[in-house]
Write a structure and sequence with these properties.
The complex is a heterodimer of chains A (112) and B (395). Chain A is mainly α and 112 residues long. Chain A has helices spanning 7-35, 41-56, 58-61, 63-73, 79-105. In chain A, helix 1 (7-35) crosses helix 5. Helix content of chain B is 8%, strand content 35%. Chain B has one helix at residues 3-33; strands spanning 50-51, 63-64, 70-71, 94-100, 106-112, 115-121, 127-132, 135-137, 141-142, 148-154, 160-164, 170-175, 187-188, 194-197, 205-209, 215-220, 227-230, 236-240, 244-248, 254-259, 268-271, 277-281, 283-287, 293-297, 314-315, 321-324, 330-333, 339-342, 353-355, 360-363, 366-369. The longest helix of chain B is centred in the N-terminal third of the chain and has 31 residues, at 3-33. The radius of gyration of chain B is 22 Å and the shape is globular. Mean pLDDT of chain B is 86; it is low at 80-84. The chains are: A mainly alpha (112), B mainly beta (395).
Chain lengths: 112, 395
């Protein structure tokens, strides 16, 4: 299959990458909902912790969505979309590194 | 950029993001390991060690009256067993916390017959008043005029700060929000102002409240607060179990924040007369008024057994700081950070420490007679003074 890459595809990849981000939180939340009973403390703490860790480690959790999406799209030849996805993932990862260093330097605790 | 290169950059960036928290942790651990263990020869031998009395009574007094009377609970945290040479004071109650007013009135938070209450007893043991509270309540703070303040969380949620007058009449209630099973007790400053942790997890704050129940200011803190203390100059210092302490001036402006590098649940704060903050959080840190480290004291077994300081240190009138580690090594430390003496016990256990006004130093496992009683100024013990009033009000 002939590979294609255009600015439009890259933009589509960027949009797709951003749109996929809440999915990892939903996956974790879905797992917690499936393994805990309604109204229990375990479910409450689990959902709260998952939310907190998602915002603290967004640069890590992107790997659950960006990498699979990129690997799925790679054989289809839409390299522009893959590029867009990887750009989003790289940006989120580097931004997360900056945020964690900034938090630590400012005296804020790093969750986990 | 070629796609394989972009893939490589992406993978390296993601790996960096994953490794960053571990790297930060390792850097902090390396910094902590650079602080040498205090292995100097003690300046003097440890005082004679007396075994803690065995029996039904707790070895640590619940509180001490201004006249020197010490109140103990029995092994079930009740005050109702006739044993040894102690007089039974109040029977058939279970006490959670105890504070004593300047006239000797006992303020107790406790339970009896499945009722939770906040009570005042006269120094002769007569019940003065009792307030039923079907709630999770903190220790009380007792003002010089015998007004009392405590933070309670109803079972329905939404924590509140409540004030009572000396007759047990409700003065005011201030909702502070959040839900706490173990609310951090309030503290009273030199001017009579009340400081409390709000307990709202999403936006944790320290609030300042007037004696009339009006909120003066609020200041953000890093996360849940376990201890609020007030220095002699009105500086409010909070202990955050994630290993932080933060200080605020009486107007609510943040003065400094300090990170010990260790997450210690049972750490604690005390403040000396000169404003030095002693922060037990893994090691014992002496912090000046700018939050800078004056000295750090690392327990001898820190490397060999992973020992750490546990519980709040206490400060004697002569400036000596007493601090106990998890392995029950009890240290007396000079205000300059020198090792005055140390006990050589190495059995792990709870690290409660109480210094009476006449120089009786009690731990869970032994008691000692030391050169000086508890300091009378500053915030020399976890609950402020020997009476646990949690008040730094000036005379």
């Amino acid at each position: 299959m002939k590979s294609t890459s255009s600015p439009l595809q890259i933009a589509a990849g960027v949009v797709l990458g951003i749109a996929l981000q809440p999915l990892s939180l939903q996956i974790v939340a879905g797992y917690i909902m499936a393994t805990t009973r309604p109204g229990t403390e375990a479910r409450g703490w689990g959902l709260m912790g998952a939310g907190l860790l998602y915002f603290a480690y967004f640069g890590m959790v992107q790997v659950f969505t960006i990498l699979p999406a990129a690997l799925i799209l790679l054989p289809t030849g839409k390299h522009g979309v893959v590029r867009g996805l990887l750009l989003v993932g790289t940006s989120l990862a580097l931004l997360n590194v900056g945020v964690l260093i900034f938090l630590r330097a400012s005296g804020w605790p790093i969750p986990g | 950029m070629r796609l394989p290169t972009l893939f490589a950059v992406y993978l390296i960036s993601t790996a960096t993001a994953i490794a960053t928290p571990f790297a930060i942790h390792e850097v902090e651990m390396a910094r902590r390991r650079m602080i040498p263990v205090n292995s100097e020869t003690p300046l003097e031998p440890a005082p004679i060690q007396h075994e803690a009395p065995q029996g039904a009574f707790q070895p640590i007094p619940a509180c001490q009256a201004p006249d020197g009377t010490e109140y103990f609970m029995d092994s079930s945290f009740s005050a109702g067993s006739e044993i040894e040479n102690r007089r039974v004071f109040i029977a058939n109650i279970t006490v959670q916390s105890c504070a004593i007013g300047k006239d000797g009135t006992l303020y107790l938070v406790g339970t009896s017959e499945n009722e939770i209450w906040f009570r005042a007893y006269s120094r002769s043991g007569q019940l003065k008043w009792s307030i039923p509270r079907d709630e999770y309540c903190s220790r009380p703070a007792v003002a010089r005029n015998d007004n009392t303040y405590l933070v309670c969380t109803p079972r329905t949620g939404n924590t509140q700060l409540t004030a009572y007058d000396s007759d047990g009449q409700l003065r005011w209630t201030l909702p502070t929000g959040g839900f706490e099973w173990n609310p951090a007790p309030p503290a009273i400053g030199p001017g009579g102002g009340i400081y409390a942790y709000t307990g709202v997890q999403s936006a944790p704050e320290i609030i300042a409240v007037t004696t009339e129940g009006k909120k003066l200011w609020s200041a953000s803190v890093l996360s849940q607060v376990s201890q609020v203390v007030v220095g002699p100059d009105g500086t409010i210092v909070v202990n955050i179990p994630a290993g932080h302490s933060m200080a605020f001036d009486p107007q609510g402006r943040e003065l400094w924040r300090f990170y010990s590098g260790a997450r210690v649940i049972n750490g604690g704060l005390t403040v000396a007369t000169d404003g030095t903050v002693y922060f037990a959080a893994g090691f014992l840190f002496a912090l000046d008024k700018q939050g800078n480290t004056k000295w750090t004291f690392k327990p001898e077994l820190a490397y060999t057994r992973g020992d750490y300081f546990d519980g709040s240190p206490v400060i004697a009138q002569d400036g000596t700081i007493y601090a106990q580690s998890y392995y029950r090594q009890l240290y007396a430390i000079t205000p300059q950070g020198r090792k005055k003496w140390v006990t050589n016990t190495t059995t792990p256990g709870p690290a409660n420490l109480v210094l009476s006004s006449d120089g009786g130093l009690r731990t869970n496992w032994a008691w000692f007679v030391v050169s000086s009683g508890l300091a009378t100024q500053g915030w020399p013990s976890p609950n402020g003074d020997a009476q646990n009033t949690r008040s730094g009000e000036l005379e």
